[in-house]
Amino acid sequence: MSDLRPVVIYGASGYTGRLVAEYLRDYGIPFVAAGRNKAKLQEVMNSVPGIETADYEIAEVDGSAESLAALFDGRKVVCNMVGPFLRYAGPVLEAALRAGCHYLDTAGEQQHHLALLDEWGPKFAAAGLVVSTAMSMQYAVPDIAARIVLDTPGIDTLELGEYVSAVPTVGSTQSIFDVIRTDAYYLEDNVLQKYDGIVPQDLAVPGTGYVVPGLNWGGTAMPVFFRDDGRVRNCRMFVAMKNERGDIPQRVRDAERMFKVVFQWIPEQKLYPVLDRIAAGMTPSTPLRENRQVHRSVDWCTGRGNNVTARAVIHGTAGYQITGVAQAYAAMRLVGNTYHGVGFRSPAQLLGHRELLGALEAQGLARVTEETAA
Asked: At a CB cut-off of 8 Å and minimum separation 6, what does 1 contact?
């Protein structure tokens, strides 16, 4: 049994990474805060509440698969916070697999989810390891809601929505713009079908009386999570985001038009800096720590069958803190060998939907209401 600290947070100096560190400390799990800049890592760790009681170390790595594999060797879990994941996840996945570590990330890019499902999932399964993506508020919470709905026999169609008050980090916004460049899919009659670009959808938010404009948000993780689930024929999800300026959905649509007219002709090595500058303009600095009285969310899933309907609604608060808890709780379960299955696993599939919900409820971050009608 290795006496090395079992969990590595790669990208620990970012906004989400420090929250994962905070909740690993809360669970009493020793960890390594890793990244490219040792001084920055130490500065960020010094700002983590209660860090003086944590068992952790700082590790500077250059981001190559070789340096990461050397760091991961002998450890058990990698929490990858370095996005956009379509650009940067490859060496981390390679290193985790080579070192024999379970892999978690917070990715929102559907094409990344599909790559993990189809390419990396079989490799990790063959090694007896887990590869789990979207272990974050945006898709772990609807994953819980969907599986609660599927507890009702006869459900075969999932319609999901999310309404969140949040300010995305620069990294999250960069991921949004990466998604614009790739195909997005929904599940219909057991087959992934391609959306024709960004699709708007008005969403009636349960319990609020609001009807808000939503988007298909790059397809979301949910059709990927249920593509191979024999119970589910159809699955779609739409997302509405409320922010201080209230203009994120419109700016995403404007960026898609701009990409089709101008950006798609730019060589990739020159395109990323352009997209990153636009993302920085939408989210110019690291957000302040969330306020639970302000940064709230509603996630819902309505399930249909031939003669049955079920619905689960999860009210949450402080989405980035939800992400920190989900990552830390998953790492704890993986370190303790109390998880479900190997290979590609969705968050709720890996941990159990009721158990993951319980971890969020224990922190006062989420609560579910359920309805079933025959």
From this structure: none
Q: What is the pTM of this model?
A: 0.91
CATH class of segment(s) 7-134+321-362: alpha beta
The domain 137-319+365-373 belongs to what CATH superfamily? Dihydrodipicolinate Reductase; domain 2 (3.30.360.10)
Q: Do strands 234-242 and 56-60 pair parallel, antiparallel, or not at all (unpaired)?
A: unpaired
Q: Specify burial of residue 297 (Cβ count, 10 A radius: 0-12, 13-18, 19+).
A: buried
From the CB of residue 306, how many other CB atoms can be counted at a distance below 10 Å?
8
Beta bridge partners of 239: 162, 215
Q: Which amino acid is at 75?
A: R
pLDDT 10s per residue in the chain (374 long)? 467 999 999 999 999 999 999 999 999 999 999 999 999 999 999 999 999 999 999 999 999 999 999 999 999 999 999 989 999 999 999 999 999 999 999 999 999 999 999 999 999 999 999 999 999 999 999 999 999 999 999 999 999 999 998 766 555 566 566 666 789 999 999 999 999 988 999 999 998 899 999 999 999 999 999 999 999 999 999 999 885 555 556 666 666 555 555 566 566 666 667 666 666 665 545 667 888 988 999 999 999 999 999 999 999 999 999 999 999 999 999 999 999 999 999 999 999 999 999 999 999 999 999 987 65
> Where are the domains positioned within the chain?
7-134+321-362, 137-319+365-373
Please enumerate in sequence order all residues whose Cβ is within 8 A of that of 329, keeping only pairs 6 or more positions apart, or say none.
23, 27, 351, 356, 359
Distance CA 251, CA 46 (A): 36
